[in-house]
C-alpha cells in the first residue's frame, strides 16, 4: 500500500489506473493521428492530444464512479466485461454532452474504433493485473505478535481476500498472559527470536496485536531488532487503518490519535475544502434542479403535506443546526415525539419517499446547508442530538467526529449500510474517524466518485 495525501491506496490499483490511462490515451491518439477519427480530415496535433486526454479522463472517472477500482472479488473475463460495458456507456454519454464545448471530441467514424480499442485494452490489462495480484510473488506475508481477539480479527481480514492488497498470516507468536483466541495450528513454535522467525518464514511485516503492552512478557527488545533488521513493524491499529480504511475502536489507544499524525485543520485545508464544497454543491444543484422540482411536485400530489422537512442535527463542535431535506415520511412519523431509528421497509415512509430515499434525492436540499456553511459536501453524517447523547455515553471517541463539519455524503455512507442501531453507529464511526484523521481534497474526490456508485445502485438506503 502507498499513501497519497494521507490516504492509503493499493499499489496494484495505482499501477492499474496508470496503465489504463496510457491504454485509453493510445487508443484515441493513434486512431486520430492515422486519420480514422474525424470525417472532416486530419485534426491538428494539439486538438488530438486534448481530445485524447479528455477521453481518457472521462472513461477513467466513469469506471471509478461504477466501482471498478474497488476490487472486491476475483475477476474473470465475464465479470470484468460486464463491468466495463456500463462504464464505457456512461463515458460515451458524458462525452456526447461535452462535444458541444470541445468540438475536437467529435471522433466521427473513428468512435467505434477508439471505444473498441480502449475496451479491449482495459479488459486485457485488468486480466493481467488481477492474475498477477493473485500470484504468491505479489502476496504480503506477515507474522502476528499475540494470539488474542485482535490477532483473530487480523486473520479473518486476511482470509477474506478483500481488496487488491493480498496478504497471508504466516502465524502468531504467543505472548504469555494473553488469552488465546486463534487456532493452535496458527501458533508458531517457540525457541527462535522474532527476527530469526521472520527470516525463516520469509515474513515482510510484523503486526503487534497485543492489547496489554505493559505486560513484562511483551517482546519490545525483539521488535526493535526486527525494525533494525529491515522487517517492518506496525501495530494493529495501523494495520486496520491501512487495509480497511477504518480506525478500529477495539484496538485504539489515545496515544495513537495523539502521535499518529493527520487531523489537518490548516488554513490551506479549510480553504480548499470550502471551495470544493461550494463548487460541488453548486454544480449538483444546477444539474439536479429539474429533478428537485419534479420531486417537490410528487410529494405535494401524494398527500398534500409539506415538501420540505427540517430537523435539528448536531454539527461541528456540538453546535445544533437545522438540516433541510425533502420529506420522505408521513407528517405524523414521530407523533409521540420520541426520535426513532429508520428501519428496513419502514411503514412511515411514503411511496414517493421510498424512491427519493433509495436514490438519495431527499438529501439534495442539504446543499443549502452547505452554502450557509453549516455542512460540508463530504464529512461525517450529522446525527440528532437525542442519539448523539446516547452514543457519546456508550461509544468511546464518538465526539471526535464533531471536530469537523458534517457532510451530505461521507466515507461511512459509501462504505457501510444505513445505520439504525448502536452497533451500526460504532461501525460507521470507525470510517468517520479515518476520514477525520486523513481528510484531504484527494479523499473528498474519491468519496464523491463512490457516492455516484451508491446513488446509481441504491446501496444502503432505507
From TrEMBL:
The keyword Lipid metabolism does not apply. InterPro entries: Bact_transf (IPR003362), EPS_sugar_tfrase (IPR017475), Sugar_tfrase_EpsB_2 (IPR017464). One of its GO terms (cellular component) is membrane. It comes from the Bacteria. It is a multi-pass membrane protein. The chain crosses the membrane at residues 12-36, 48-69, 81-101, 107-129, 275-297. It is found in: Membrane. Keywords: Membrane, Transferase, Transmembrane, Transmembrane helix. One of its GO terms (molecular function) is phosphotransferase activity, for other substituted phosphate groups. Residues 273-456 form the Bacterial sugar transferase domain. NCBIfam families: EPS_sugtrans, EpsB_2. Belongs to the bacterial sugar transferase family. This is Sugar transferase, PEP-CTERM system associated/exopolysaccharide biosynthesis polyprenyl glycosylphosphotransferase. It comes from Janthinobacterium psychrotolerans.
